[in-house]
Amino acid sequence: MTGAPDVDYTATSLRPDWDTLPASLRESLAVALGSEVVEAGPSVSSGFTGGFAAPARLSDGRRVFIKASDDTLHSYRAYQREAGVVPRLPSAIRVPAIVGSAHASAGERQWFAVVSEWVQGRMPGAPWTAEDFARVTAACERMADVMDPSPFDGLHSFLSDLDENDSPLQTPARILAGEMPLATGLQPWVPKVLSELVDLIGLAPEVFAGESATHSDLRPDNMLIDADGTCWTFDWNWLALGPRWMDWVGLLPVAQHHGIDTTAAIHSSPLTVDVPADHLDCFIAAVAAYMMTRADAPPPVGCTPALREHQRFYAWTFLEWLASRRGW
Fold first, then answer.
1. Taking 60 as the threshold, does the pLDDT of residue 273 lie above it?
2. C-alpha angle 85-86-90 in degrees, rounded to nearest 5
3. pTM for this model (two decimals)
4. Which of 87, 141, 148, 224 has the smallest number of Cβ neighbours within 10 A?
């Protein structure tokens, strides 16, 4: 491979249709919403899971967006987490309001659905333009202002969520030790910089010690820009404590890959103007390590093969961003 993998983020998921959801869940939703679904779908094709996710029209005329999953999929708990987080987000964050939720049983499976207001918009970053990058940057700066310090009690840190026995942050060290192979499809120079990745990731306890509530999974396919240029954020199921700049900096490598001058952006944004360069590089190295982990393995149950394509694309672009900053 001579360049970054190509991933179409508008076509990464395989989702069920409305008619395949159990009748018990559809009935519970009608009760919760006070109105029946008269038209639904088609399901959105972004994301990497098999959870149902589609716009719908109710008999009372409202347009909504419905997500639903059974308890065999990761999305079952993710949707419940989102339903609990979104109503508590500060009003300055533009996020579709939750209008209802429902539980149901069907055979041996438990089901959950969450319904939010419908937002008409388009995904930024496909590819990134200077205008959309400016809109998203402004939205990230507003989010940081109202989420620092965290308005939520009892949040885990972003680092603690990764600090497990099989932590992906250990991937570069494990590759160096011969305990696991290097993922295929990366730059040929990656073996030469593994030790520097290990050193950068060693700064993680200091770098991730922030007290801001962060989205922690902010990507273009978790955002929409509406006709008025407003940036909306979605999928708030990974909320965690971290540095206030983390969500925005996680967007920079792909933006630079698309031609955005992220060096100028870092020097001008209040989020990063005073942040040590090694701290930014540590975060990007940590994400690269995360994306390198199990990139050649079959996807987890309930996830599509596009998840692994996404991992390679992110690992490539994040490593390339580091290379341009560190002279690799």
1. yes
2. 105
3. 0.94
4. 87
